[in-house]
Amino acid sequence: MKVKSIFFLGAMLVILASACSGNKKNEADQTKLAEVDTMPFEVEAERFADLQVLRYQVKGFESLSLQQKQLAYYLYEAAMCGRDIIYDQKYKYNLTIRKTIDAIYSTYKGDKTTDDWKKFEVYAKCIWFSNGIHHHYSNKKIMPEFTQEYFANILKNCDSSLLPLEGTDIDGLIKTLTPKLFDPKIDAKIVDQSAGIDNIVASANNFYEGLTQNEVEAYYSKIADKNNPTPVMYGLNSKLVEENGKIVEKTWKVGGMYSKAIEKIVFWLEKAITVAENAEQKTSLEKLVKYYKSGDLKDFDDYSIAWVKDINSRIDVVNGFIEVYGDAIGKRGSFESVLSMKDMEATKTIATIAAEAQWFEDRSPIAAEHKKKEVKGITAKVITVIAEAGDAAPSTPIGINLPNSNWIREQHGSKSVSLGNIVESYNVVSAKSPTLKEFAHDVSVVERAKKYGALAGNLHTDMHEVIGHASGKINEGVSTPDVTLKNYANCLEEARADLVALYYVYDQKLIDIGVMPSLEVGMAEYDNYILNGLIMQLTRIKLGDHLEEAHMRNRQLVASWAYDKGKKDNVIEMVKKDGKTYVKVNDYAKLRDLFGQLLKEIQRIKSEGDYKAATALVETYGVKIDPVLHKEILERFEKLNVAPYKGFIQPKLVPVMDGDKITDVKIEYPTQFSEQMLEYGRKYNYLPLIN
Ligand code: ZN
Question: Which residues contact 397 (CB under 8 A, 6 or more apart)?
Answer without folding.
Answer: 2, 3, 4, 5, 419
